[in-house]
Write a structure and sequence with these properties.
The chain is built from seven helices and no strands. By secondary structure, the protein is mainly α. It has one domain. α1 crosses α5 and α3 packs across α7. The longest helix has 36 residues.
Length: 149
């Protein structure tokens, strides 16, 4: 259970820079029943393990998974947690309120977000792309011979 709480805390901080409370942790633990323990591909396990480390590891794994593995467990867990956070008493106001500032401030925020997203995606591509490609090439292809008669 403590591993789930740690994962919840890490993902919560990544999504909204706030701390998960008991309500959020409990709902996240309940939601774990939605996820299968067996990941379809080795890259899915790599992405989830990197995500659990938080920080740039999580950001780069999320950015990579968003484009190349959108249905992986990491993305599913982040999406479910975001839904919990949007409705949790402690975090809903933060996530559902608009940012303040004028046009210039808004354009600066967009530019900063875009630059940060591109850098994190590039890091994810460099870190996970080769593993993903190699894992696809290493997997054996089983071909059954058919009887032509």
């Amino acid at each position: 259970m403590s591993e789930q709480f740690t994962e919840c805390d890490t993902f919560t901080f990544y999504l909204c820079a706030l701390t998960a409370d008991e309500y959020i942790r409990r709902k996240y633990a309940e939601a774990q029943m939605l996820f299968t323990a067996d990941q379809a591909e080795p890259i899915d396990r790599v992405l989830l393990e990197a995500g659990r480390r938080g920080g740039l590891h999580l950001g780069s794994a999320d950015a990579y998974a968003r484009l190349f593995r959108p249905r992986t467990a990491l993305r599913q867990k982040l999406i479910v947690l975001l839904a919990i956070l949007e409705n949790a008493p402690a975090t809903h106001r933060y996530l559902n309120s608009a940012a303040s500032g004028g046009v210039v401030v808004g354009l600066f925020r967009i530019a900063r977000l875009l630059a940060g997203t591109m850098m994190v995606f590039a890091l994810g591509l460099l870190r996970f792309g080769p593993r993903h490609l190699l894992a696809g090439r290493v997997a054996p292809v089983h071909v059954q011979a058919t009887d032509p008669s």
